[in-house]
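Notebook entry, structure prediction.
Reason for the run: the old model in the group folder had no record of what sequence produced it. Starting over properly, with the input documented here first.
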Amino acid sequence: MEVMQLLDEAFRILGAPDVKDLFGGANAWDVVDEVLIRYFDERLVTSPRQRMGVTGRKVLRWLAAPHLLEPARGTFEALLLEIAEPAEEWLTSAQSLRVADRTDKRMILPWTQQRPVGVAARRAEPTHPRRGGRGVFRGSGVVVNGTGVDLPEVGRGG
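New structure, fully documented this time:
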């Protein structure tokens, strides 16, 4: 038997109406919680585990599909987007339970050292090239910081 068949059969048993009634659970995961408490005297937070189970099942089903052998890269990457969110959710749940760890901590920057990318990133050079050095208004030769040629005042007869 394959792993998915075993998991499916186990949850079919745990989700059977008589088993749910016996343990007072609304679903198979509630039955798992109750069995752990009654027979193993152990309380586990099953919400992340439940998410890992559901999203892990999606990942395994996606991996078992024939589109994994797609020869065209663009088509494969489009199909890969289907599994990106469940895979990220599984990884986040696993990290919250300390079952998985980030693989390369050297690549992770603290929040204070992260730099914006894309549109939010600062440009190294101004968008309009300046001629004449600092303080010159777009290459006009008119100095706007008051150290050179003064701009004529508007409204005065000066």
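Summary: The mean pLDDT is 76.
The old model has been moved to the deprecated folder.
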